[in-house]
Amino acid sequence: MKRRWRDIGVLAGVLFAVNVVARLIIHFGFDGDDTAADRVSLGMFVLIGVILAVLAFVWGRRRPLGEWSADVAGSVLVAMLLTVLVGPLLVGDSPVAGGAGTFFAQIWFYLGAALAGTMVGYLVATALGLDYRSQGLKRYAELKAAKPRKVVRR
Structure pTM? Predict the structure, then answer.
């Protein structure tokens, strides 16, 4: 159980770190240039999706869906709250400095990127037959095919 909480915390920290780096790049490199800031933000969301896709692929091979999906959901929730509420404070802004629309748009974009990345990673693992359930069914089929048929005498 201790390892599971550590994994959730590390994943949330990594996702938050991606956001912090993107915010610092925008603040120091593109302050005032909205087009460049939008591109960096888009890159951040794509990177978050890729991280979660790789993680879903790897964890989907080793653990049942119900177990790792709860871990990913918890990590994404913690990272999203840190990103929306603490992230702006790191560069000297208020969490609602851009207005309520921007605040809620960040939440929806973050959840969308996280959901899309996680789904892509798990669907690729499932399509390749590498997910936990497919591997279990494969082992079961091999076990049943390996046993000789019992002869019944009357």
Answer: 0.84
